[in-house]
Specification:
226 residues; alpha/beta; Rossmann fold; 5-stranded parallel β-sheet; 9 helices
């Protein structure tokens, strides 16, 4: 989606259940807002792939579809927020996921005289989430992502970019998806109320074309009084 950069909101968190499109929207908003996109999912997968101590600790937890402990993910985020490129703002994708993480984020930002400007809650029906995640395929070689229905590769099972064999992520298996949604409802949804009480929460319909969802988000964060 084209348009002028929007600089009024500079510290943004994208929220919502697995599969609502947080990563897609964060990538688009990164360009629109000219701000770093911080994805906890990408950070964890990189740590697992590289075999770091944090990655080894997280691997089994992620593959079961459970939430990584607050202390581990908060430490990764805390270190990231100290870097120079986020001092003018950022787009968080996948953090915070518990009230404890939200409180940690508040303390970390307040220590530097900063605070969140808005929390965008992207909402999608559970049936569509299951279809989105269950059909997702990724290339372990180059990281390209596809979907068996919505964005298939030209050659079934092969990456268009590098020819690598496409795989289904362990946490995208149907039984794991349902488990992830249950974990979300039980442990993550309370964060919505945390931010709603603070007047930071903005609900956005995540159904439809990605560019339409982006338009809804931009309209909310650019509206007077937001």
């Amino acid at each position: 989606m084209s348009g002028p950069a929007i600089k009024r909101v500079v510290r943004l968190a994208l929220f919502g259940a697995p599969g609502v499109g947080k990563g897609t929207q964060a990538g688009t908003l990164e360009e629109r807002l000219d701000l770093p996109h911080i994805s906890t999912g990408d950070m964890l997968r990189a740590a697992i792939r590289e075999g770091t101590a944090e990655g080894q600790q997280a691997r089994a937890i992620v593959e079961r579809g459970e939430l990584v402990p607050d202390a581990l993910i908060s430490a990764l985020i805390g270190a990231r927020l100290e870097r120079e490129d986020v001092q003018e703002g950022f787009i968080l994708d996948g953090f915070p996921r518990t009230v404890g993480q939200a409180e940690y984020l508040d303390r970390t930002l307040e220590a530097g005289g900063r605070s969140l400007d808005a929390v965008i809650n992207i909402t999608v029906p559970e049936t569509e989430i299951i279809e989105r995640l269950g059909g997702r395929r990724v290339c372990p070689s180059c990281g390209a992502s596809y979907h068996v229905r919505f964005h298939p590769s030209m050659v079934e099972g092969r990456c268009d970019a590098c020819g690598g064999r496409l795989e289904q992520r362990a946490d995208d298996a149907s039984d794991v998806i349902r488990g992830r949604l249950e974990v979300y409802a039980r442990q993550t949804a309370p964060v919505l109320e945390y931010y709603r009480r603070r007047g930071l929460l903005r609900d956005v319909d995540g159904v439809g074309r990605p560019e339409d969802v982006t338009g809804r988000i931009v309209a909310l964060i650019a509206a007077p009084g937001r």
